[in-house]
């Protein structure tokens, strides 16, 4: 997970699918929070986990390089992730 650029094509596909599924889960939690279905404490924990996820160079690089994140995730979630990443930088 230190450097996804040196993965085989097959492993890169696996990593991409793993990241997509992981972030779909985060997007669902983000939606639940925005809709008032998730309390502040639970949201704080999940938000922290997302920060830990993107502190990893491979996962941060995947997000940055992913050309179709707008097609995979809702615009509100993409915008929120971008804001969180810029705050952490």
Description:
The chain has 89 residues and is mainly α. The chain is 76% helix and 0% strand. It is built from five helices and no strands. Helix 1 packs antiparallel against helix 2. The longest helix has 26 residues, at 9-34. The chain is globular and about 40 Å long. 8% of the residues are buried.
| Strand tally | 0
Largest sheet: none
SSE sequence, one letter per element: HHHHH
Poorly predicted regions: none
Strand content: under 5%
Percentage of residues assigned to helices: over 70%
Mean pLDDT rating: 89
| Global structural class | mainly alpha
- What's the total helix number? 5
Supply Rg: 13 Å
CA distance, first residue to last residue: 19 Å
How does the overall form come out from the CA principal axes?
A: globular
Summarize the structure.
The protein is mostly helical. It is 76% helix and 0% strand. The longest helix has 26 residues, at 9-34.
Descriptive terms for the model:
76% helix; 89 residues; 5 helices; mainly alpha; 0% strand
Topology readout:
Elements: H1 9-34, H2 40-54, H3 57-65, H4 69-72, H5 75-88
């Amino acid at each position: 997970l230190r450097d996804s650029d040196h993965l085989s094509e097959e492993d890169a596909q696996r990593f991409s699918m793993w990241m997509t599924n992981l972030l779909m889960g985060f997007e669902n939690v983000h939606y639940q929070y925005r809709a008032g279905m998730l309390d502040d404490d639970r949201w704080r924990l999940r938000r922290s986990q997302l920060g830990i996820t993107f502190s990893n160079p491979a996962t941060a690089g995947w997000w940055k390089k992913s050309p179709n994140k707008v097609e995979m995730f809702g615009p509100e979630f993409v915008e929120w992730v971008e804001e969180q990443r810029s705050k952490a930088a």
